[in-house]
Every structure is written in C-alpha cells, then in structure tokens.
Design a protein that fits this description.
about 475 residues; alpha/beta; D-Maltodextrin-Binding Protein, domain 2; 4-stranded mixed β-sheet; 15 strands; signal; Bact_solute-bd_prot1; SBP; ABC transporter substrate-binding protein
C-alpha cells in the first residue's frame, strides 16, 4: 500500500511546542507512518478501542462540491490503507457555517479542517484536542517541510493546537486579454520587467487598469471590496498594516499607514476603474470576471478550478502590486484539528497523520483548490501543474513569504462592523485619507482597547482627577 511505505524522521516533535526552538528541528520532509502507533498517546490510550477493531471516523470539511469531492476521495483512499477504518465526510458550505455549527453545540467531527482565525473561538467552547503528543508518537517530522510561522500560529500554551494544512494568500486574477503587457509596452506604458514572475509595482498596476478599463463598453479595471478584509491585502502590499498586534490587537493602524493609503486612493477612489453599483446589482465580481468584463479580481487559490472550466477565458495570476518593491499580502492558514470528544483518539490521529502525508496532500493539491503548507508538495508539479492555468502558479507560494495573517475571525468581524462607514468613504474620490484613518483608529480603539479605569474621586468636584493631577 502506498502510504504504509512512507517513513518519517524521529524525535522532532519535542521541538514543535515552542516556535523559538524550531530552528533546532531538522528533517527532510513532513512524511508520516500509516500504521497505528505502538505507543498510544497517554491522553487517549485508556479509552481507545483496540487496534484492528472496526472504527468509523468522521472528517469535517467546508466549501463547494468540487473541493468536498477532493477531500472525499482522499478519505475513501484511506480505506485501502487501513481496512478496519471507515471515514465519513461531513461538509458545510463555508468555514463560517462550520464554525457557527460547532460553536453552538454540534458534535465536532473526529478530524476537521479549521481556519486558524477560528481556532480561538473553537478552543473557547472546548472542541479541540491539541495534536502535538499524537504526532510525536507517530514520528511526524515538522522540520524543513513546514513553515515555522505556520507552526507558531497554531501553537498555544506550548502545544500545537491543530496541524497546519493549507494557506490562502490573496493574489490577483488577471484577464490577459484585457491586461496585455505587450500592447501596453508598445504604447510606452510602464509594464513589469518580467511578467512571468508575477510581480509588479503599484505604478504598473495603475497603468494596467487605465489600459484595461473601458466604461462605455462595460469593462471595469478591478474590484476591491470596501471592507477591512477587502482592503487588507492592498494595504499590506502598499507598505501598511491593519492592526497593531494580530493576536491581541488594541487598535487598527491606519494613521500609521497613511502613506500607503494615500498611494492607494487614486486606485480605490477612481470610479472609472470600478464595477458600477448597477453592475454589482446584476452579478458578482467573479461573474463579471468570468464574462470578460472585469480585468483584475482579488482572490485565493480556491477560484482556480472554476476559472479553468470557463471556455474562452484567458487568465493568469499576479501578486498584489507593491509600493517600493518586495511582495506582501494578507491571508491565513487552515489546520487539521482533533475533536475533544472523539471516541477513538488514536484512530483519529492515525487518519490525521495520513492526511498530512505527501501523497495525500498531493492528491488534494491536484484538485487545484488549495495551497499546501507541506513544502514538498507546494514546490512540486503536483501543485504547480505545468501546462494548466495559471501559468504563474508560483505566485501563490511566493506570496506566502510576505503574507500577514489577519486577526481572529470574530475580532475582524467586530472591527468591520465598527468601522464600516469611514472604510467605505476611503473609496470615495476627494475624501481626506488622514481624517478617515484617524476616525477608523478611533473607532477600533474604542472597541478593542482596555476599558478606562474609574477612580473613586472621578466626578467629585474639585477633586484631583478633575484637575488632572495624579490621584493619591
């Protein structure tokens, strides 16, 4: 059997718990053993059924039918590896639907995919069982094959909460008929020196929008969602930053990112470049892109299979346009988690170990939906798929190097609600970016900052607090 032949290095998970010690973790790749561990995890050995007895596991995933199908195929393949285990796939239409379901009391699948931004919410309702001791017992090597940033982002209290699985950097999908670099160059417009590497400057990007936008023919340049999430990759690429601390934010940092905002405003606030409200009432930005009426659409890897099926649509991917060189964007990781209430923790851990093997990750990566965290897969043809769109597939993996992660999902949602009005006004021509930046930071600080302390003397006439002098 394919998976049973995979071998892993030993003794490396002792390094996993602390990000600061990851540099000491060696290894050639993130492969793993398939057979049940001869030394079960102490946390589950007493309650787990005996190895070899029939076991039914549930595997929780989210997304459209195509990506659910890819995960289902991998789950079915596991039956050939361990005939005693049957894996049933449970799916939700979106990550938010899954998290809401689990957070409101639904039984968690034995193994389930979870966005990093939602791990805190699921930890609060006691759904997740840390995976580090289980992976250590199975000799899983998290050395050079995995990003230290990904491991750190899934670590809490010296434990690896969930196993990093995929990453979703925001990139730009570009209609190559509308954005024709050769034609632009012939007109003397600024173009990337090497479009094949997917990098361009904000100046070159703006020139591409001017070239591609044809309002009278109903062709728009780019779509940028007028929300904090929609603005975040553009802000990062222009040299700005969304919040002061992604793990425990106390404020947005728009006033500190003023130069980036001012550089972006000519693009964000130019009505010539945008889909009109009438267009948006008739179809989504993705549908306009598929129809050849939108030149540039932000998105992650999950759009690839759908766009491949669109006959006559010629497209590629480019990085977010940078302001001053380098590469930057925003995005997040998804991880594989173990349920706190699984009836057979060892069987679930064996299945999770199989899911992160090079062969299994390659099978899912070939569906076109995900960017694997497993570097052995991400840098190989199984992910790049030469000869299939996009030609610049390396843009996805390159973008991860400069990717800033977003705050926890619930925090970002609260921030978006609190700052919605001034954020939308950043997309209006003639507005003052500095005034709006200060207002956004003011609203976010009121939401996230510590509550003001109340002194016993507050409000007393003539008291020290009223005069501004220190309270004894």
């Amino acid at each position: 059997m394919r998976f049973s032949k995979v071998r892993a290095a030993t003794g490396v998970l002792a390094c996993v718990a602390l990000a600061s010690t990851l540099a000491a973790c060696g290894g050639s790749g993130p492969d793993a053993k398939a057979s049940r561990s001869p030394s079960p995890s102490p946390s589950s050995a007493s309650s787990s059924p005996s190895a070899g007895e029939p076991v039914t596991l549930t595997f929780g995933v989210y997304g459209g039918s195509r990506v659910v199908g890819a995960y289902s195929a991998v789950a079915k393949e596991y039956r050939t590896i361990d005939p005693s285990v049957t894996v049933k796939v449970e799916s939700w239409p979106s990550e938010s639907a899954m998290v809401d379901s689990l957070a409101h009391g639904a039984k968690a699948p034995d193994v389930f995919l979870t966005p990093r931004a939602d791990v805190a919410a699921l930890t609060d309702v006691d759904v997740i069982r840390p995976v580090d001791t289980f992976l250590e017992a199975r000799n899983v090597d998290l050395g050079d094959g995995y990003s230290r940033v990904a491991i750190s982002d899934f670590s809490e209290d010296h434990h690896l909460t969930c196993m990093p699985y995929s990453v979703s950097p925001e990139v730009l999908y570009v209609n190559t008929d509308l954005v024709d670099f050769a034609a632009m160059k012939a007109r003397g417009l600024p173009v990337p020196a090497n479009p094949a590497n997917g990098k361009w400057s904000l100046e070159q990007f703006t020139a591409a929008l001017q070239f591609a936008s044809k309002p009278r023919r109903g062709i728009a340049g780019a779509y940028v969602a007028p929300t904090l999430r929609g603005l975040s990759p553009w802000l990062a690429a222009a040299g700005g930053q969304l919040v002061d601390d992604v793990r425990t934010p106390t404020t947005t940092t728009f006033s500190d990112s003023l130069d980036a905002l001012k550089a972006l405003q000519p693009v964000l606030a130019n009505p010539r470049f945008r889909l009109t409200s009438k267009q948006l009432s008739k179809a989504t930005p993705l549908q306009w892109f598929e129809r050849g009426r939108l030149a540039v659409l932000p998105g992650d890897r999950s759009l690839v299979p759908q766009l491949r099926e669109r006959a006559g649509l010629h497209w590629d991917v480019m990085a977010m346009p940078t302001n001053g060189g380098g590469a930057a964007t925003t995005g997040d990781y998804s991880g594989l988690c173990l349920s706190k209430v699984t009836e057979d923790a060892d069987a679930a851990a064996d299945f999770l170990t199989y899911l992160i093997s090079t062969d299994a990750v390659t099978d899912v990566a070939q569906s076109g939906y995900v960017v694997p965290v497993n570097q052995q897969v991400a840098l190989a043809d199984g992910f790049k798929q030469p000869g299939r769109a996009p030609a610049n597939a390396a843009v996805f993996t390159d973008a991860v190097k400069g990717m800033a992660i977003l705050p926890a999902a619930r925090t970002l949602a609260e921030l978006q609600d609190a700052t919605a009005t001034p954020v939308r006004r950043l997309f209006v021509r003639g507005t003052d970016a500095e005034v709006l930046a200060n207002r956004i930071d003011e609203l976010s600080s009121a939401l996230l900052g510590p509550a003001p302390s109340t002194s016993p003397s507050d409000g007393a006439s003539g008291g020290a607090a009223a005069s501004g002098s220190p309270t004894p």
